[in-house]
Amino acid sequence: xxxxxxxxxxxxxxxxxxxxxxxxxxxxxxxxxxxxxxxxxxxxxxxxxxxxxxxxxxxxxxxxxxxxxxxxxxxxxxxxxxxxxxxxxxxxxxxxxxxxxxxxxxxxxxxxxxxxxxxxxxxxxxxxxxxxxxxxxxxxxxxxxxxxxxxxxxxxxxxxxxxxxxxxxxxxxxxxxxxxxxxxxxxxxxxxxxxxxxx
Length: 199
Description:
Layout: H1 2-22, H2 26-34, H3 38-60, H4 63-80, H5 91-115, H6 129-136, H7 140-147, H8 152-162, H9 168-175, H10 179-197
Helix pairs in contact: 2-3, 3-4, 3-5, 4-5, 4-6, 4-7, 8-10, 9-10
């Protein structure tokens, strides 16, 4: 009886412990990505891209935009993985929250853009898809390294536009330059990033 009782107690305990170690395989990947582990980043993409694409597609309702948003999302993940705290929730939950926030930001920008054609310079000017894809072409670690080749103000502007979702108008005001100058900054910086990534 005692042996049966011990065995009955050990098996459930062991069964509970193993799922606790494996129930959130995304969390350790995020920890490794925060340390700029490229292999972990590839594994993270393979493990989560399909589900995150579904989240983005449900919100954005346009496959082309959802695909662009997915690339932008993974750039954000590479640069922000250090902010993930496993004590506050599962890794996949954190990624889904990032995806939803990104999709909502894009919808807001889309509505602002179509709501007032006469004030195009005053509304959020989201990153064109071609430029987003250009940034996403590079490997994640090299994207981070190549940012360091930009002038500090221009690097900050690129990060503001593509990671923080700031409009060109907001960035121009923040940096004290004309709107056209800010557009030029961003385009030239992205060209420089592309050249760096292709080396």
